[in-house]
Amino acid sequence: MRALLLTLALLITVPAVAQNTVPFTARDQTSAEELELQRALQGGTISGRVSIPDTKSGNLVQPEGQAWRQFHNRTLYTVGAVAVLGVLALLWLFYMIKGRIRIAAGPAGRTLTRFNLLERTNHWMVASSFIVLMLSGLNLTFGRYIILPTLGPEAFTTLSMWGKVAHNFLSFPFVLGLVVMFLLWVKDNIPNALDLEWLKAGGGFLNNSHPQAGRFNAGQKGVFWITVLGGAAVAITGYVLVFPFVVTDIAGQQLAHMIHGVLAMLMIAAILAHIYIGSVGMEGAVDAMTTGQVDYNWAKEHHSLWVDQELAKARTVIEPGAKTAGAD
Amino acid sequence: MARMKFLCDADRCIECNACVTACKNEHEVPWGINRRRVVTLNDGKPGERSISMACMHCTDAPCAAVCPVNCFYTTADAIVLHDKDLCIGCGYCFYACPFGAPQYPRVGNFGGRGKMDKCTYCAGGPQADNSAAEYIQYGANRIAEGKLPLCAEMCSTKALLAGDGDIIASIYRERVTKRGYGSGAWGWRTAYKEGVQA
Q1: Which of B32, B83, B92 sits opposite A72 (nearest CB)?
Q2: What digits encode the pLDDT tens for the residues B138-188?
Q3: B163 found inside a domain
């Protein structure tokens, strides 16, 4: 019996010994430190297999996290601060030098319809959701340094939690509004040769001239395309983050956040200028989005071609049921 | 004070996943959350290594640096913990963490992921030590009882070491000298900006 066992044992061990001629210690050894250094410098993750269902946990080390940290704490912070404060400073400077842009000929008292109820409602749906998205978004980058010390940790968490919920859910009316906005206004926002003239004249801001413009001048077209294209990019990257790991992995989410953050900061800067010129910056401008009725002289000065168009339309369009004077 | 670290000796780890199970059991970690997991590199090929990985309790922790509500804190033993009452579940720590340590109880629900959960080094959280509230939120607090993390304590091959960084590094160095090989301390360069010189 013992002899049999011995033979069996030999049969099992002998081939194993024969195969492993190179001793283990002499074989090529991976070095954790070298591998981590290499990945940190060249990018890429150290990943393997896991036996749990969560396959994304197979990432052992992902050094890109450090790059993302650098982006979030330095780049985004700087870009945001410079863009937002820079635009506010420029607007303040502009206001100090030029003051409010008046209607040169004074208000005429007669008005034209510039935006109908649908256009105005949609504009304010986009605008109000944008304000909340902007504030809750800025809070994630700057709140920790500005609001947290004043509010204290508990109140700041409550604020940020609601901010996060609002940010996620108000994206839906924002995006819906962008789609409607695009459909309503795209036909008047196609760039043309007139826009070059307008831009060459600096929009007339500096020399108080009034370059010709149709329904939208080059500046407004700029705001339109920034809103539509920027908004689309911010929305797509935002939804990638709202549904984690549905469309992309961790590297994709880091990239999505980076695009989302930088574009959002730039959009905020642009929209701040839009808010300024649409309110305190210019007499008569805000009426377009409140009552929808703009002063005739304001329209003449800023959108001369559009006024001509509207007047021509009014002359040709005959209201249904209208009768020629003296017909009855 | 000690500087607590984890060190997984990949040449000893046999991927039994007992550390994972012990962790889940000790802290009653819910379904879908793994504070610790075992990753096998080069599975089935020459040079296969298994490494048990959890939060490494980094020096200058990236999670703490990027947290918008500043909910992380570091204990006197250099253990990185967080306050779940302050966490808003934004997921930023997960983007920044090199080790994929932060876990969320809910995924894909319009970003409502719930409060982040991660390895506490068996040190609980900001609640009173070993209180019921602490146990529900963070799990057991073995450190307060003078014990080391359970995953390392019960590791059958003693591959996973936990304790003061200098002590576990010297244990590892001794092993490498004696057996003549070792792949190094996985994650140390990333987490602590230093390796273990054999």
Answers
A1: B92
A2: 999 999 999 999 999 999 999 999 999 999 999 999 999 998 889 999 999
A3: yes
Cβ atoms < 10 Å from Cβ of B197: 9
**Domain assignment of residue B53, yes or no:** yes
- Answer whether residue B142 is part of any domain: yes
Closest CA to B50 of A57, A37, A63, A48: A48
With respect to residue B198, please indicate whether it lies within any of the assigned structural domains: no
Write down the ipTM of this complex: 0.91
* Confidence label for A31 from pLDDT (cuts 50, 70 and 90): confident
Considering the entire predicted model, what is its pTM? 0.88
| A154 interaction partners in chain B (CB closer than 8 Å) | 85-86
Residue A152 touches chain B, beta carbons under 8 Å: no
Domain A113-316 has CATH 1.20.950.20: yes
What CATH number does residue B64 fall under? 3.30.70.20
Give me the DSSP letters along A124-151: HHHHHHHHHHHHHHHIIIIIHHHTHHHH
Candidates A157, A170, A172, A243: best to mutate against B (most CBs of B within 10 A) is A157
Q: Which domain holds residue B78?
A: 4-191
Decide if B149 contacts B12 (C-beta within 8 A). Answer: no
Q: How many structural domains does chain B have?
A: 1
